[in-house]
């Protein structure tokens, strides 16, 4: 499995967990806030990977 697919799978699992926690505990619960930070970091990781990949594949202008 390639890295972007693994990250997107983790993002989806963590998004579902965040949704479950928010539904059960409310948006201000510490568990929800921690899970939100985990999800944010995974999204940042995905964006860093995609940005680095994009730069590698760029063609020179001239």
Number of separate domains: 1
Low-confidence stretches: none
Compressed to H and E, one letter per element, the order equals HH
Distance between the termini: 36 Å
SSE topology sketch:
Blueprint: H1 3-25, H2 30-56
Pfam family, one: SpoOE-like
Protein name: Aspartyl-phosphate phosphatase Spo0E family protein
Organism: Paenibacillus xylanexedens
What does this structure look like?
InterPro entries: HLH_DNA-bd_sf, Spo0E-like, Spo0E-like_sf. This is Aspartyl-phosphate phosphatase Spo0E family protein. It comes from Paenibacillus xylanexedens. Helices cover 81% and strands 0% of the residues. By secondary structure, it is mainly α. It has one domain.
What characteristics describe this protein?
62 residues; mainly alpha; 81% helix; elongated
Write a brief structural summary.
81% of the residues lie in helices and 0% in strands.
């Amino acid at each position: 499995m390639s890295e972007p697919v693994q990250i997107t799978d983790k993002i989806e699992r963590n998004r579902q967990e965040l949704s479950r926690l928010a539904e059960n505990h409310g948006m201000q619960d510490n568990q929800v806030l921690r899970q939100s930070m985990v999800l944010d970091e995974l999204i940042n990781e995905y964006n860093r990977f995609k940005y680095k990949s994009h730069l590698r594949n760029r063609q020179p202008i001239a």
